[in-house]
Specification:
242 residues
C-alpha cells in the first residue's frame, strides 16, 4: 500500500511535468477567417503563417514553439471548421479535429458571434479582432493589429496549464518522460492486481506473481534491464538491416 501510494503521487505529477518538458500543446480553433493565423503570428512575434482576407487560407496545421511568460508552449494554427468545399478542405478540417483531440488547451476563436460555447477545462474562448467591434461581457478580447489583450491571453494560458508549476521546482521527483509514466502505470496496475490475492482466501502464488510484475516495471524505470530485453526492444522498435 505504501509503494502504491508513492507511485500514485509520482503519476499525479506526470501531466504538468510532461508539459514543462515537451511544451504544452495549445491549438487555435474556430471558423474560417476569424483571425486565427493573425493571432498565431502575433503570439509568436513573427510571420509564421500566411494571412489573407480569403477564407480558408490555412489548410494544413502549422506548429511552432513559443514562450508564454517563461513557460514552453507548442502553438498550433489549424484550418477553420465549417462547410467543406473540396477534398483539401476536408483533409485540413480532419487534421484540425485531430489536433483539438490531442490539445492540452484549445483557444476557440471568434470575431463577431460568440464561440460555440463548449464549456470544458480544455477550452478557452477568445474574441479576436477586438479593434473592429465593441467589447463583450467577460470575454477574453485580443487584437493581432493593436496587440490588445495578447499578454492577458498568454497569462490565461499559463494559469490554465501550469498553475501547479511552482511545485516542480521542489526537490521531490516528478515524471517528465512518457516511458517513465508507462512503467509506473504498469507497476500500479500490478500492485492493484496483487491486492485482491492478499486476503485470507487469496492465492499467495498469484499475489507474488503480480508483485514480481510490479518489481519488473520499476526495474525498467531505473534502467535495470538485461541484454535480451534491450535486444527485444531494439528489434521491436527499429527496422534493422543485415
Amino acid at each position: 500500500a505504501e509503494v502504491a501510494a508513492r507511485i500514485a503521487g509520482l503519476l499525479a505529477t506526470a501531466p504538468l511535468a510532461e508539459r514543462v518538458r515537451n511544451g504544452a500543446l495549445v491549438v487555435l480553433a474556430g471558423p474560417p477567417n476569424v483571425g486565427k493565423s493573425s493571432l498565431f503570428n502575433a503570439l509568436l512575434g513573427r510571420e509564421r503563417a500566411i494571412v489573407t482576407e480569403i477564407p480558408g487560407t490555412t489548410r494544413d496545421a502549422i506548429e511552432a514553439a513559443a514562450d508564454f511568460l517563461g513557460w514552453p508552449v507548442r502553438l498550433v494554427d489549424t484550418a477553420g471548421l465549417g462547410e467543406s468545399t473540396g477534398r483539401l478542405d476536408a483533409l485540413g478540417q480532419r487534421m484540425s479535429r485531430q489536433y483539438q483531440e490531442s490539445a492540452d488547451l484549445i483557444l476557440e476563436c471568434h470575431d463577431r458571434d460568440p464561440a460555440t460555447g463548449r464549456d470544458a477545462p480544455r477550452v478557452l474562448p477568445v474574441r479576436t479582432k477586438s479593434d473592429l467591434g465593441p467589447a463583450g461581457n467577460g470575454e477574453l478580447r485580443v487584437s493581432a493589429v493593436t496587440g490588445e489583450g495578447l499578454e492577458a491571453l498568454r497569462r490565461a494560458v499559463v494559469e490554465r496549464l501550469f498553475a501547479g508549476g511552482v511545485a516542480l521546482a521542489d526537490l521531490d521527483p516528478a515524471v517528465t518522460r512518457e516511458r517513465h509514466r508507462v512503467a509506473l502505470q504498469r507497476a500500479a496496475q500490478a500492485l492493484d492486481q496483487a491486492k485482491a490475492h492478499l486476503k485470507v482466501a487469496g492465492d499467495p502464488v498469484l499475489a507474488a506473481h503480480h508483485v514480481q510484475g510490479a518489481v519488473g516495471a520499476l526495474d525498467a524505470l531505473v534502467g535495470a534491464v538485461d541484454v535480451e530485453e534491450v535486444l527485444d526492444r531494439l528489434f521491436a522498435t527499429f527496422c534493422v538491416g543485415k
